[in-house]
Design brief:
globular, 83 residues, 37% strand, three-stranded antiparallel sheet, mainly beta, single chain, 0% helix
Length: 83
């Protein structure tokens, strides 16, 4: 996995955290039309959820038994389709 640190403003309320963007996974890199998005499965609603924050945000906690996906999608339409 290749990633880059975000050099813009910090998250509101989390000034000491650095955001990271995933640039590529297994040799597949983001470009002008596609990017990597992370999703998690909500067992209560039985739906994939595209969080409003990055995978390294303090609210992005990995839980034991959780299901997560990195999906390479076009961002021409928003939100991208779930996995």
């Amino acid at each position: 996995m290749d990633y880059v640190a975000y050099s813009g403003p910090t998250w509101v309320g989390y000034p000491n955290n650095t955001a990271y963007f995933v640039m590529g996974i297994n040799g597949v890199y983001m470009n002008a039309t596609h990017a990597w998005f992370w999703w998690y499965w909500d067992p209560t609603t039985r739906e994939w959820v595209l969080p409003p924050y990055g995978a390294n945000h303090v609210n992005a906690t990995v839980v034991d038994g959780g299901i997560y996906a990195w999906v390479y999608e076009s961002y021409a339409s928003w939100p991208p389709p779930p996995p």
